[in-house]
Amino acid sequence: MAPRVPLAEVISVGDELLQGWSVDTNAGEIARALLDLGIRVGRFTSAPDDRALLASALLDSSKRAEFVIITGGLGPTEDDLTREAAADAAGVDLEFVPELWEAVEARWRARGAPAPPSNRRQAYRPRGAVTIPNGRGTAPGFSLRLGQAQLFSLPGVPHEMRAMLSEWVMPHLAAAALQADGYVRRVLKCFGASESSVGERIARWMRRGANPLVGITVSRGILTISVLAQSEGVDPRSKQQIAEATADEIAADLGSLVYAREDRTLEEVVAQRLLEKHVTVAFAESCTAGLATSLLASVPGISSSLLESWVVYSNRAKELRLGVRREILERHGAVSAECAESLAQACRAASGAHLAVSVTGIAGPGGGSAEKPVGTVWFALASSSGTISWQRTLAGLDRNLIREIAAREALNAFRLSVEGHDPRFRPAL
């Protein structure tokens, strides 16, 4: 008998989503969280602020899935209709819950103002529903049985949705997922190669219909390899063993391209490595204009490692701030190994950091040439062992993506260095 994999559907509510004014980030975040429990999302639906259409969407999803998560439509205005639509779908009335109104009033008092009368709408829920508390906003969620499905209704505000999903919904779903034979997911995060080259390298693991199922996605230069395994035979432990073994094989094959074995950002991993090794760093940035520094500085506690940063965008700034000789700029140009090395060396000397990295390139859309097309970026890393430089050509990308990938390349150079790898070289793909 084939394993039973729990199925969920996600509904995102709001005219602004269908009109293109807002981008739905909630659905993808929910799907990733559910997949970690072994629950597969079978469908995303975007629905307008229309009571009848919302109720219809809820009924349709409840016939296909065991779990339905809907986000949005829980605010205090007349177009927030998820409560009413859910009640209609379940064939029940809305009920006023005094405790919910007291919580809304308390949140407004904490803001130094009385609760507006319109917020009273948020104290209603479908009869028979269970409240999902919202510790970050005025819109409580609710959970309700809807046919064969369990419905979870959450706010559309991402940080409120995220907290309620993590603190309330996921623990409730975890128990249900354990009773079925869902997926086990393992993740590899990679940086430094194209999706196509990595895809070709791991193609033997990516056969459709195989167990485990291996897939690869790319976003802003970061590659995510997902390994999804189900049990074989009657031993539920086998899916964990299958997932782990396959992830181990792929990681060994990709080598230093893999920066994490879980869903973590590159900047988080780089910061962890630097802090663990007590390594101090500094940046000299031209085309990235401080973006690499900003990414690293987003990690709490990094002040123990990050010392200084220079944005030397113009040639004059490169000369005046970090002493790049005019001869280098005139003979080789700002986008060159010589300029990158000079910047990194001066940055390290001025800051006293253990490691200094420099970035200088052509982000476009103009400024390129046949010899140095748009997307040409030079990097250098200065350390006590000397200075090395390397080039990456990020052709065919827009200006912002070139800058973002270049900034991550600079960060990744620190990771590779402290892990004992040469940033100039990639594993043979």
For the terminal residues, how far apart are their CA atoms?
39 Å
Number of domains: 3
Relative helix content: 25-40%
What is Rg? 26 Å
> If you average the pLDDT, what whole number results?
93
Low-confidence stretches: none
State the CATH class of the largest domain: Alpha Beta
Class by alpha and beta content:
alpha/beta
Instruction: Classify the fold: give the CATH topology of the largest domain.
Output: Molybdenum Cofactor Biosythetic Enzyme, Chain A
- Large-scale geometry: globular
Treating each run of at least 4 consecutive H or I residues as one helix, how many helices?
14
| Percentage beta strand | 15-25%
CATH-defined superfamily of the largest domain: MoaB/Mog-like domain
Strand order, biggest sheet? 2-1-3-8-7-6
Q: Judging by the overall fold, what is the CATH architecture of the largest domain? A: 3-Layer(aba) Sandwich
Main sheet record: 6 strands, mixed
The overall strand count is 17
What does this structure look like?
With 429 residues, the protein is of the alpha/beta class. The chain folds into three domains: 7-178, Molybdenum Cofactor Biosythetic Enzyme, Chain A, CATH 3.40.980; 184-260, Alpha-Beta Plaits (2-Layer Sandwich); 266-418, CinA-like (Maf protein, Alpha-Beta Complex), CATH 3.90.950.20. It contains 14 helices and 17 strands. A six-stranded mixed β-sheet has the order 2-1-3-8-7-6, with helices on both faces. The longest helix is centred in the middle third of the chain and has 21 residues, at 158-178. It is globular. The two termini are 39 Å apart.
Structure summarized in a few sentences:
This protein is an alpha/beta fold and 429 residues long. The chain has helices at 15-18, 26-36, 51-64, 82-90, 98-110, 158-178, 195-201, 238-254, 266-277, 291-297, 315-322, 326-331, 337-351, 399-418, and strands at 7-13, 40-47, 67-71, 94-96, 124-126, 130-132, 141-146, 149-154, 184-191, 213-219, 222-229, 258-260, 281-285, 306-311, 355-361, 376-383, 386-393.
